[in-house]
Amino acid sequence: MYALTEKGERIRAMFGAIAPRYDLLNRLLSLGIDQRWRRFAVKQIGVAKTGRVLDVATGTGDVALEIASRTASDVSIVGVDFCPEMVELGRVKVQQAGLEERIALQVAPCEDIPYPDETFEAATIAFGIRNVVDRKKGLTEMQRVIRKGGRIVVLEFSKPTAPVFSSLYNFYFLKVLPLIGGMFSRFSAYKYLPDSVLEFPSREDFKGIMKEAGFSDVKHYDLTGGIATVYVGVK
């Protein structure tokens, strides 16, 4: 079993603590835009009518459910996440959607995916790679379990590109968001969110890490003025 670093354990405990309010706060703090971002990301996976798709850092299963809604019924989805509390909530949502036959969720970190080489047609990770302590190892592990020619799709928060929009966004992200998050959940968790985005590599640097992990034809798409970015690479 992969041993998380001390930092990784702290992040896992933090997400476990906010799990019950996680979905509500995502919708509230993003004004529902996060759902559109997930839909765009899922459209990039390019999976045919059959096969398996892996969703890493699946959380409460939003992306796994989105993949199920936008692929053929013969496509199965596996979601993994290092936070047991998130996975349990995700299983409830999968059951409520009647998709237990298509979606399986389990506890596992990005750096140690418990599947053989070339098991999946594609892999996704939404708002999760930022929380992986060893990002290159995590991406390399995702590359390992994807079949040749398969895609990885990464959706992550990023820093806006337009100066004026960036100033407004930074005020909301750094000042307002932690306060709202603290009203419903833990202030420290929603202070961690903007801090982790600010320290995340630039778009070009992150694409470089993807290439080092074995992906080619790496490109990115900025969404909503660059608040979020979708990265796509091919094994």
How does this model look, in words?
The protein is an alpha/beta fold and 235 residues long. It has one domain: Rossmann fold (3-Layer(aba) Sandwich). Helices cover 46% and strands 22% of the residues. It has a 7-stranded mixed β-sheet, with helices on both faces. Helix 3 crosses helix 4 and helix 7 runs antiparallel to helix 8.
Q: What's the total helix number?
A: 9
Structural class: alpha/beta
CATH superfamily membership:
Vaccinia Virus protein VP39
Oligomeric status: single chain
Q: What's the number of structural domains? A: 1
Number of strands: 7
Q: Trace the largest sheet across and list its strands.
A: 3-2-1-4-5-7-6
Brief digest:
This protein has helices spanning 6-18, 22-30, 33-43, 62-69, 84-96, 135-145, 163-184, 187-198, 203-212, and strands spanning 51-56, 75-81, 103-107, 120-126, 146-157, 216-223, 228-234. The protein is α/β, with parallel strands linked by helices and 235 residues long. It has a single domain, classed as 3-Layer(aba) Sandwich (Rossmann fold).
